[in-house]
């Protein structure tokens, strides 16, 4: 019996999607819950801001280190073993955070959580690409995109409400049942769909990958607060660049690389990955800068700033499955062009803010912006991954997620730094808001670059280059 017959007989896509979406939802929601709760944690555990910030920084750092290694893990272990291990680590980390009596234990919990979450995202994308035939992948990724967009936006709102009503530990108690139920259901339903090639463990590559991606992510994420000239930023960036360069050169020499950089030889994948990164930098503006504007300059509460992001999250959530179906019919080109026109216009609408700017204006423009983002993100990701041979899909998803992590860190640091440098303290609130306007000009330029890139997407790249398959495609028509 061949792979195709096995997959047809054993895989029920409905429950599988439910498992993947639940896991992704918990993992991504967890990333965004703590930001609003940090002041409460600081008071309870007697921490200063720079120490407390490590609770979010360490999660992103470990997450960023794990993602590039996931491609290697997918080829080394079975789908079931890897997914259950990732969800198990995530559950254990969440439980530790929920009962943590002090900062040190809480940090341990966050590291364990992140080690699981870093595996979950690229693994889920890989499974989706494996079990859906090419003409249905857009719809599948659209449903997946619903979660990716919805979870980060309801995170601050949910977190703001929870910490006002209950102790901050309630954040972890809310996530824990979802993770445990997902683990139990996955144990009985999940089948092995990825192919094991048992690549050799290259310890040096794993060390270099961790130092390279970890150094860059840490440098960019701390530059926003510490400044680009800070010693810790400069040292981590230099170490990151050297280690990453060494890592990349080493991968080309290995027979079975940890992360396959040859995926960038496929032009459509390279273009769509670059487009996703540019898009993410523009997107970070709304998620990072707007809450700072609302709470620090316009006098809104943390809950209200989270509530402002909610309409955009709902729009993006509902649109992702729709754009997935449109992608299956028409390809990514016009979806990306129209979406980026909307994103560019709405981003520049945030460059004329002042102290009289209303909650409604921010919520409506942000919602329109998210509408545009939904037309771009998942379609371009799917268009790029569709070009890869089956055996390169794990490397493609790992690369895609890694590049997004890097661009997210770069975007946050860049826009926060621009906002700080563009502020005019002598002019009070209006002077502070001027810095926000300048940061959105930079985000708008990023969106414009993306718009130019979108014109280079082929009309229907899936048909232009086809899929260069060197191993059997698991097709479940």
From TrEMBL:
GO terms for MF: transmembrane transporter activity
Protein known as: MFS-type transporter YcnB
Primary location recorded for the protein, binned into one broad class: membrane
Topological relation to the membrane, as annotated: Multi-pass membrane protein
Keywords on record: Cell membrane, Membrane, Transmembrane, Transmembrane helix, Transport
Gene Ontology CC annotation, any one: plasma membrane
InterPro entries linked: EmrB-like, MFS, MFS_dom, MFS_trans_sf
TM region(s), chain numbering: 16-42, 54-74, 81-105, 111-132, 144-164, 170-189, 201-220, 226-249, 269-294, 300-322, 334-353, 359-385, 406-424, 436-457
Annotated source species: Halobacillus andaensis
Domain called Major facilitator superfamily (MFS) profile: residue spans: 16-462
